[in-house]
Design a protein that fits this description.
Strand order of the largest sheet: 6-11-9-10
CATH class of the largest domain: Alpha Beta
InterPro entries: Autophagy_Rcpt_SigReg, PB1_dom, Znf_ZZ, Znf_ZZ_sf
Helix content: 10-25%
Organism: Arion vulgaris
Structural class: alpha+beta
Number of strands: 11
Number of helices: 5
CATH superfamily of the largest domain: Phosphatidylinositol 3-kinase Catalytic Subunit, Chain A, domain 1
Keywords: Metal-binding, Zinc, Zinc-finger
GO molecular function, one term: protein kinase C binding
Pfam families: PB1 (PF00564), ZZ (PF00569)
Number of domains: 2
């Protein structure tokens, strides 16, 4: 059985290159491969590249076929002895699809500009009670608080001094404050040593004088009565 193939090589420009040739479709032969080899000979542009074959069914749809069995289905719809085959022209190597005009057009929307940040005009504040977590991350400035002894380790206070806001005479060094000692009261954070004449005395003597001055302050009560006072507060009569 002989069949005529009418081949349309469709280019992107819209023009078609049309060729016709007879094809032997005897049963038992691979006439699909024979048809494809003949097409390669007729169209030099398809000699070394890959291409696909299509036929148009009664509904007007393009149907691809790539085997003898699929080609037989296309031949079953032939009524005039001519099978029309359509081949889209393959894209050459290195070509890229052309982008649409919308994709090529740059965006007209302006990019948001970063807003400049205004400098802070906050006023410096006085010493505040420091939390115990702040003392752990503050480095020591190396200055010695003369005359001040740490009530945690009984050593000198070097760097940052933490003074209790409630207790009359309770200080901690930076290390002991970082250990979480005396957490029941807030602490003042003192970074600069204060000048006190008593600070030039030995630490134990300075603390003794400070304690003595507090006991002698107005309103302080004596821990023991005078040995010369009587029951009513006067001198005993001989």
């Amino acid at each position: 059985m002989s069949l005529t193939l009418k081949v349309f090589l469709e280019s992107a420009s819209g023009s078609n290159e049309i060729r016709r040739f007879p094809l032997n479709t005897t049963a038992g032969t691979d006439f699909f491969t024979a048809a494809k080899e003949k097409i390669r000979q007729l169209y030099p542009a398809l000699a070394h590249g890959h291409f696909s074959l299509y036929w148009q069914d009664p509904d007007g749809d393009r149907v691809a076929f790539s085997s003898t069995e699929e080609m037989k289905d296309a031949m079953a719809h032939v009524s005039d002895g001519v099978l029309r085959v359509y081949i889209p022209e393959p894209m050459e190597t290195g070509e890229t699809p052309v982008k649409s005009q919308q994709e090529q057009k740059p965006s007209d929307k302006p990019k948001p500009q970063p807003q400049p940040q205004e400098p802070s005009h906050s006023q410096p504040q006085g010493p505040k009670p420091a939390s115990h977590s702040q003392g752990q991350n503050t480095e020591s400035n190396g200055q010695v608080h003369v005359g001040v002894t740490c009530d945690g380790c009984e050593g000198p206070v070097i760097g940052i001094r933490y003074k209790c806001c409630v207790c009359p005479d309770f200080d901690l060094c930076q290390t002991c404050e970082g250990k979480g000692l005396h957490t029941e009261h807030d602490m003042f954070k003192i970074t600069q040593p204060r000048v006190n004449p008593l600070n030039f005395l030995p630490p134990h003597l300075g603390r003794y004088i400070n304690r003595y001055m507090r006991e002698m302050a107005p309103g302080a009560s004596s821990s023991s009565s005078s040995p010369n006072s009587g029951p009513n507060g006067g001198a005993d009569s001989q």
